[in-house]
Structure formats: structure tokens, C-alpha cells
Amino acid sequence: MAKPAFVSPSLPRAALAGATALMLLCSPMMIGTAAAKVGVTSATDGDPLGKPPAEAERVLRVGVDVQANETITTKANDRAHLMFLDGTSLTVGPDASIVIDKFVYDPNSKTGDLAITASKGVFRLVGGKISKTNAIVVNTPSDTIGIRGGITLFTIDAKKTVSIFIFGFSMTINANGRIETVTRPGFEVTTNAGGSPGRATQLTKGQLNALLSQFDGKKGGGQGGGNADQSAQNSGFSNSNSGKGTNVDGSKGDKFGSGPGPRNRNPSDTITTALTDAGSTAPSLQPSVLPNVVPTVNTMTSKVTYVGTMSGLVINNGSPSLANGIYRNVWDVGARNGVASATFGGATYGGGSQPNTFAVGNTPAFVTPAPLPSTSGPTGRNLSLVGANTPTGQAGTFAITGPRYGAAGTFQATPGR
Questions:
Q1: Are 91 and 72 in contact (CB under 8 A)?
Q2: Maximum pairwise Cα distance, the chain
Q3: pLDDT averaged over the chain?
Q4: How far is Cα 275 from Cα 247, in angstroms, rounded to an integer?
Q5: Ramachandran bin of 226, using left for φ above 0, alpha for ψ from -120 to 50, beta for the remaining angles
Q6: pTM of the predicted model as reported, rounded to 2 decimal places
Q7: Which CATH number applies to 19-204?
Q8: Which residue, 47, 160, 279, 349, shows the most beta carbons closer than 10 Å to its own?
Q9: Which of 186, 183, 191 is nearest to 201 (CA)?
């Protein structure tokens, strides 16, 4: 096994969706064997490859599980989005190579360790439950990156590693006996091979946009173009379990996904929709304590009410800040859909009696097939959700777009006992 490292949707269709993986999720897990499942592939573009330690290399498609010690590689037109069992998500950009070194997670205490080794490429990490209490570690040829409770982008080649802190508690860069810590969104650190980390510098809007564009799907060959903002607003996930896409706006969209399962939407884009202005100086803030809401379980109708918190970066009229909110989803276990609602940034979204979140095929992942408009508070805002179900709760990412307003971050919720 490679040395431990820090880093946050392919799940086996049978493993994570089936009873065996669900049983594993109910108890502390030490992932160290060749067959251990650590997450699921939630979206792909092109033909990204995965090589488990004791199996043949295969193309990653939606629903394919990711294993401990697996090597994942992409070429120029490939991308993959992975969701780990703790809710951490990792987007693997083009011309990339990573190894999942270590995954330890206790769903009861919501603690553990996650480490990867990334040798080249561009990546976007959204920390899940593990990162709330312990830094996720990414080992690169030039340095070691530690990520606490947030969103980080990093680009890696043989000569240097560039790490960009988008949102969260902190990003720590360790190399050559020196540590550089970043707590302000929109700042980057460059580490040259064999050297020490440089001083954190502010990223320009153009630099951030150029980096984010590498996660968009390419045109041609069944793969669409489109930027992150378009992708977040023009989702095409199925609103049933058929796996057929439903393009909200057929004239544009990302068409992210070349395998079986949903298309026309890049799930990872929900975390960057509002961040094209993140190069602006933003304060380093910590989430405040939220109300202690108590969820309920309706066993008569097989519906579970998940209630939890949202935390994210807001850009309102060009001014960045950190905000918190409340997430709620009444999930129908049998129908595999739910009625989601949220309160964030002074606006309320969703609710009602009709389902607005739907499972993606036979995987634990779920999405909003169309953005949820604000029902109270500021008008013209729309909320998009991408998450996953486990026996211990729901977790995922969200994005909100509106006139001169954008927000992006993570949510997590638990069911009643």
C-alpha cells in the first residue's frame, strides 16, 4: 500500500446499492484489501480507466465501484466524478493519474481517514464527513496537500503542483520541511519539485475560469461542451429509474456522461457554479452553530425524513461571504425519490407534495432533474442538488444561481431514530 495521504460520485451497482455494501456502511470500515469498495463512479466523460489491484483494468461507467488501492487514469478527452462512502467527491480531469491509498470510515462517529496519491493531472475535491474532523491528504510528486472541510482544486505535473483553496476550513501544503496554510478562499500555492511551498497568492478570475474549464465535457463523439454555469442550470438527469436522460434545455447542456446512466449534466459542476468570481478576496469564516432540528421516520409509508445543514460560499453582488442553511428531504424508499426543500441565504427552495429529487439508476446517487426555484425571499434564484443515500443519511453538493448571486457548497443530513 502506498504511504498514507489526505484528500471528498464508480459504486458497484450491486455492492453499494445492494445489501452487502449497506451492511458495511453500518459499521466501522477499514479499507485495505484488494476487494474493498470505497465509493462509486457517479459520472464519466470519455473512457476513464480504473485498475483495481487484483482485477483487470476496465472503463469506468456510472455505477461502477471504486476500490481501495485502485489506479484511475484519464486521457485528453476523459473525465470522471467519484463519490466516496463518506460523501467526499473527487472530479478527475483530463490526462490524470491517481491511486486511492487509504480509506477508513466509521459511519457512526462520522470520522476516518482518506488518502490518495496523485501523480499528474487536474483535480477538484469536495470534502465529505471525514474532512470535517480530519484532513484529507493528497500526496503529489512535489508536496503533500491537507484539506479540511472544503473545496480545493489542484494541478500536478512533474515540475510543480499548484493548489487552489476555494472554500472550507483550511488547506495545508507541506514540502521540504516547510508548511504553508491557507484559510482565505481564492488563494493558490505553488510548490516546485524539490523545493518548498511558495507564499499564497490571490487567483485572478481569468485564472480560475481557465482551470474550471478543464472539467467541462468536450464537443464531439457524444460529448458536449458548456461551461460550469450552463451545466448547473441545464441538468438532464432522469426523473425515473429508467436511466433515460431528460434534457431541460435541449439547445445547450454539458452532456457529461458517455456510459449507461444519466447524461447531460456534470454532477461536479454544482460546486463551482457560483465560484467564477472566487478570485475576489474573501474572509476566512467558520460555520456557525445551526438549530438542532429533529428528523422523523414514517415507517408506515417507507418514507424517511432527512434533516441537516448546508454550508457554502456566497457571492452576492460581487461580495463573497460564508453562509449556512437548513436542508430537508422526505425520501420515499420504495419509489426512490424525495421532496427536498432548503432554506439558504434568506431564500426558501422546493417543498410541496411532488417529488423533486430522484435516484440515478440503481446507484445511491440522487439529483434534482430541474433546479428548484426560490419560493420565498429573493426571486429568480434556483437551487441544484447532487447527493447520495446511505443507511446513515444523505450528503452531497449544492449550487444556487440568480441575478448577481451565486452560492455553492455541501449539505449533510441524518434520519430520525
A1: no
A2: 62
A3: 73
A4: 24
A5: left
A6: 0.57
A7: 2.60.120.1440
A8: 349
A9: 186
**Cell numbers of 57, please?**
483494468
Q: Which three cell numbers stand for residue 236?
A: 438532464
What cell does 38 get? 470505497
Neighbours of 336 (CB within 10 A): 19
CA distance 146 to 182: 10
Please, which residues have CB within 8 angstroms of residue 411's CB and are 6 or more apart in sequence?
A: 308, 309, 310, 311, 327, 342, 385, 387, 394, 395, 396, 397, 398
Q: Would you give the end-to-end CA distance of the chain in angstroms?
A: 38
pLDDT in tens, 301-337: 588 999 998 887 788 887 777 788 999 999 998 899 9
Q: Among all chains, which residue has been given the C-alpha cell 447531460?
A: 264
The conformation of residue 204, written as its DSSP 8-state character, comes to: P
Length in residues, the chain: 417
Range(s) within the chain of domains with CATH label 2.40.160: 273-414
Question: Which residue ranges does the chain devote to CATH 2.60.120.1440?
Answer: 19-204
Q: What is the 3-state secondary structure of 345-397?
A: CCEEEECCCCCCEEECCCCCEEECCCCEEEEECCCCCEEEEEEEEECCEEEEE
